[in-house]
């Protein structure tokens, strides 16, 4: 099994700058295959509401965006989506929403328990910052994984775009989740204002030290109705370099190709899967709500043919000589 590589900040910076892409990508692909073989994991995601109490400057579902039509799926609708996901063979369900108590914490616990016991799938939650007791309740209900990106570890980048919120609180949430035994995913938004490659290199090292099970970085893509609506989109090549680097820094973690990459590069899945990534996600949010989960421009297509979308993903995976598998896709990383 390949050992984690220890890079200096300078080495990471040079690789992020594209000093040696060919060798970096080849090595990431080799290490990915050594850990996960040619298997690619798939997750079905349900975006259960777009109601958010926070006001993050980059995000289209921020509370002050009055142009957005807000929706909230009922528990039955969420369970129907989960059944559809399972009926297509997928055994890993992600539930993500804006940060609020629109769906109560107790309701989420009930939904998690039912997906686990009645539907028979692993559950990842991505519902934002919550008190430790709430994470604990959801864990006891059966939740397996939690996705909470820190977005950046740099206060100089974080504070101006998260008015009234504390980066330390967010980091504490990630620590609580790890402590409670979740498989935890975290990462960054590359391309935020003031986020330099030096700071990004430093963040990759901090995350490696923290020891999460899943690494995810999205490229910034401007969203309508946000203060950053005219801020330029991130350079997607930097995302590929970062995911390849992270595969070397923590060989056993899960690494998805994030959907924001697809809105900047139509070949992102093929490229990501050959550069260290091993996870793909497919949205099962009902057609009537999909366009309103507008974190950024082009986030979801207006409608989706779930079965043919899945077949398309299977074909993409096959086109790069890999194989989509339908087990829950747990991270092999252990702390
Ligand atoms: N560009 C890229 N990623 C974004 N997210 C939210 N808004 C944007 C954007 N404009 C990501 C954040 C958040 C996750 C749910 O979506 O990383 O944690």
Give the tags.
335 residues; 13 helices; binds 5'-deoxyadenosine; alpha/beta; eight-stranded parallel β-sheet
Notes on the protein architecture:
With 335 residues, the protein is of the alpha/beta class. It is 42% helix and 14% strand. The chain has helices spanning 9-16, 21-36, 75-87, 105-119, 132-141, 155-161, 167-179, 197-210, 236-249, 259-264, 268-273, 287-290, 306-319, and strands spanning 39-49, 92-97, 122-126, 145-147, 183-190, 214-219, 279-283, 323-325. Strands 1, 2, 3, 4, 5, 6, 7 and 8 form an eight-stranded parallel β-sheet that branches. Helix 3 links the parallel strand 1 and strand 2 (92-97). Helix 2 (21-36) packs across helix 9, helix 3 packs parallel to helix 4 (105-119) and helix 4 (105-119) runs parallel beside helix 5. The longest helix has 16 residues, at 21-36. The protein is globular, with a radius of gyration of 18 Å. The two termini are 16 Å apart. The mean pLDDT is 97. The protein binds 5'-deoxyadenosine (5AD). Residues 58-59, 149, 151, 189, 218, 220-221, 223, 260, 295-296 line the site of 5'-deoxyadenosine.
Q: What does this entry show, briefly?
A:
Helix content is 42%, strand content 14%. The chain is α/β, with parallel strands linked by helices. α4 links the parallel β2 and β3.
């Amino acid at each position: 099994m390949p050992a984690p590589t220890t890079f200096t900040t300078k080495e990471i910076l040079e690789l992020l700058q594209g000093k040696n892409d060919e060798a970096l990508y080849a090595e990431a692909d080799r290490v990915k295959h050594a850990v996960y073989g040619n298997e690619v994991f798939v997750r079905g995601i349900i975006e259960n509401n777009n109601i958010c109490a926070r006001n993050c400057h980059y995000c289209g579902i921020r509370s002050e965006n009055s142009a957005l039509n807000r929706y909230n799926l009922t528990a039955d609708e969420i369970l129907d989506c989960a059944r559809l996901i399972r009926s297509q063979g997928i055994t890993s369900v992600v539930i993500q929403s804006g940060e609020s108590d629109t769906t109560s914490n107790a309701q989420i616990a009930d939904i998690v328990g039912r997906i686990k016991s009645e539907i028979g799938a692993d559950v990842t939650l991505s519902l934002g910052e919550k008190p430790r007791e709430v994470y604990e309740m959801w864990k006891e209900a059966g939740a397996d994984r939690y996705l909470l990106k820190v977005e950046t570890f740099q206060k100089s980048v974080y504070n101006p775009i998260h008015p009234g919120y504390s980066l330390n609180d967010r980091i504490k949430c990630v620590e609580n989740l790890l402590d409670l035994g979740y498989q935890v995913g975290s990462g960054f938004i590359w391309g935020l204002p003031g986020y330099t490659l030096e700071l990004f290199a430093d963040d990759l090292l901090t995350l490696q030290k923290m020891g999460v099970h899943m690494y995810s970085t999205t490229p910034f893509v401007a969203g309508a109705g946000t203060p950053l609506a005219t801020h330029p989109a991130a350079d997607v090549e930097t995302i590929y370099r970062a995911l390849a680097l992270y595969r070397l820094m923590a060989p056993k973690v899960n690494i998805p190709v994030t959907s924001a990459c697809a809105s900047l590069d139509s070949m992102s899945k093929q490229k990501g899967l050959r550069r260290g990534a091993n996870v793909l996600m497919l949205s099962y949010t009902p057609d009537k709500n999909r366009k309103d989960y507008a974190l950024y421009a082009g986030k979801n297509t207006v409608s989706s043919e779930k079965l043919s979308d899945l077949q398309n993903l299977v074909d993409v995976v096959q086109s790069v000589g890999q194989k989509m598998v339908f087990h829950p896709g747990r991270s092999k990383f252990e702390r």
